[in-house]
């Protein structure tokens, strides 16, 4: 077993001290905001525009939230430098501008359009691999809805259901994309959607699996197999552990990344292709969608 470098152990020990961790998270967030605005992404303007709706949205939470849902323990912790994780307004209204800022680094020539290009690459792979367009698609971990709407637009004659555990994200999604009659939203977990057996044609999970512990990732694959019709497909687009970008990443940077992505190590050590087959799918096709991302697509026998 490879020993952990002293620099990484030191940083991890410092991050275990709550006040220091809070300072590190705050600084990391400020750096992302500055990077976004340097690229022309109007972070503060977009966030303030959405935040102005929060007083009205408080009433919408009761309509969106499923009162029978019990949040799994892994979900009730800090993610992405937010102490409330995904269960709050700030992460819900910042998620899309944050994605634009982070994915702007994928193709420097694209600037702020990196996030759009990443999704386009994924949907092009889907359109190439699926023998026919799905009638009903499910977008697991749909966040604030951009991935769901983009998925539906990739297959214009389809209906897409966006599922997420955060009612805050779903309220924002409904506000931004509620005018699309071919998209609907559902409060639920990726490993327990509540949908009927063999009822959908495509299950997509875009940039979600690195946020799951291995037990939840495996349960999600099993749930996808349950709700997919024979001949249906599962499609996952997420970080690529085999990417040279991660292999070259300094250990201390990986340690800082883990402080905002608590299940990153579990994701990087999960044989996702084998897990997909173990859940009852055919061997998945692998496609590279960016210098740091991959797509896996597998069919129900």
What share of the residues lie within helices?
A: 40-55%
Uncertain regions spanning at least 5 consecutive residues:
none
CATH topology (level 3) name: Rossmann fold
User: Pairing-aware structural class of the strands and helices?
Assistant: alpha/beta
Shape: globular
Query: Kindly, what is the distance between the CA atoms of the first and last residues, rounded to a whole number of angstroms?
Result: 38 Å
The CATH architecture term is: 3-Layer(aba) Sandwich
Share of residues in strands: 15-25%
Q: What is the average per-residue confidence, as pLDDT, rounded to a whole number?
A: 89
Total domain count: 1
Give a brief rundown of this model.
By secondary structure, the chain is an alpha/beta fold. The chain is 48% helix and 16% strand. The chain contains 13 helices and seven strands.
Give an overview in words.
- By secondary structure, this protein is of the alpha/beta class.
- It has one domain: Rossmann fold (3-Layer(aba) Sandwich), CATH 3.40.50.150.
- The protein contains 13 helices and seven strands.
- The protein has a seven-stranded mixed beta sheet with strand order 3-2-1-4-5-7-6, sandwiched between helices.
- Helix 8 links the parallel strand 2 and strand 3.
- Helix 2 crosses helix 5, helix 5 packs across helix 8 and helix 6 crosses helix 7.
- The longest helix is centred in the first third of the chain and has 21 residues.
